[in-house]
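Our consortium's second objective concerns turning raw sequence data into structural hypotheses that experimental partners can test. To show how far this objective has progressed, the report includes one record in full. It was chosen at random from the queue rather than selected for favorable results. The single chain below, 557 residues long, was entered without modification.
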Amino acid sequence: MRKTVIAVALLFAVSSQSQQPSQPRAAEPPPLVEKVDVSVVNVDVTVTDRRGQSVTGLTRNDFEIFEDGSAQAISNFYAVENAQARTDVQHAADAPSPPPERFRRKVLVLIDNINSTMRGRNVALAKLETFINDHFDDGRYDWSIATVDNRVHLLLPMTSDKAVLHNIVSEIRRSPSRKEMTATFAKTEVSRSLDNGTNPAQLHLAPPQTANADIVAGNNFREEANLAEQMMFATSSTGAIVQAARAFGTSEGRKIILLVTGQLPLGHVSPIDRIGGDAHSELGNHIQTLTSSDRELSDMREQLVREANASNTSFYIIAADGLEPLEQAALTSHFGGPPSGSNAPDTSPMYWLANETGGAYMTGNRMDQSFAEFDRRSATFYSLGYMPRHAEDTHYHRLSVRVKGHSDYRLQYRDGYASASTDSQMNRTLRSPLGASMQPSTMPVSLIVGVPRFRGEVAIVPIQATMLMESLQYITDARGSRTRLHVYVSIFDADGRNITLSKSFVDVSVQPNESATGPMTVTIPPLALTKGTYRVVVAVRDELTDHVGLVSQKIEL
């Protein structure tokens, strides 16, 4: 959601005070000004025909857009072809020009080291390097790279330096993958079954009506043990990917997470052909366990979609392991895959995640074709904008888009958005370990960390932020000039976990005979930390313009 201030009215005056240094306060003050904001919800729509070819030449009048079932008037319209935007010629006179960064593709390549095999991941990375060489120099991409294991690790912030990218990709290819160990274990299980004359396609758990009680009990135990592992890795994967989606925050651009993965362990686990057993029987308890896990996995899938849509970020997913052979497909089903009765791996979570966020799931054994498809789909789309009829209410609102007279067209767009204030978005972003690197800084800010004073095991660390006064927006009248800063402090431990996020406010006043120029220092409440390594992120937001200055520094105690 992009905002434009169209009117301001003074609500109250801020008393004059010395500027150097300024002291923040924690209590939420009334707004310095009343801002009448125009909030524009942007919906990027990819339109393809039955053959999968991009549909071009559509105009604003060809589209209908709905929020929570109610039709909305399209205020902004751009047709983007090959990452270049054009306005609707029928409304060119009143069409606002897009910001320079609005349609530049900002891609976070997210390498899933939990759910990919090392071989499949490295094949995908080799093709990615080739793709970068062929599609990098046109200046329409910014790239960053992160890996996922039990958490997300940012290896490269947003850049357009492909030499640096190649070095990072080479480094990732030398790292191990957790799934390599799982695959070795699973292969042993299959080998035992094959030695006993079992067809790999028959490795599903036997339904209760065809198996004796001992076999059913043994199968149930193994299924629940493997399900416990699936849930553990599903939780880790979800948490890490959510942190990646939050990192984009309110930044401009065509924001994309290019997820290179094998198979996200978020599929359905309740077998559809299990019958019999009351709620208190062994089978009934087993079915209840599976059903409960299904609900948890469904919640995880929905969380991923909503978090991505809140940041207006699309998931394009590359299937790193390609199309699995029969043996591996049977393993996937046996070790936490789709419902009993199917040999295919359950790819529905990846289709769901991609489609509901306006991206695409690209499977198959031709990675070069997958990356070419990603480039084509992400470069050609329609950008629709409308002004919602409600205030920012923090609710999730559903979106629906149609092309009039063409029900055969396939449309891909985010299925909703979170109506959140800039402050809420800042809080989401600053809790992500990637946030400081992915969020652009539009004001120069520096950090001064003083000498810590120890009180037993706790170190009191003084901290100050410095900036130029002329980088701020002021209200000026006969009493002088005034503005307000929102100061956020986010602290991460050595493992990248956010341990605290605090916020305070600074009212800045300049006397009529003084100039609002030169350096300004804001003294932030001291940090109380135990011995260890931390990363401190400080963000300063100008209340009048929502411009943000970000700075990060490592502290070792």
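The partners drew two points from this record. DSSP finds ten helices and 25 strands in the chain. The CA atoms of residues 272 and 477 lie 72 Å apart. Both points have been shared with the crystallography group to help prioritize constructs.
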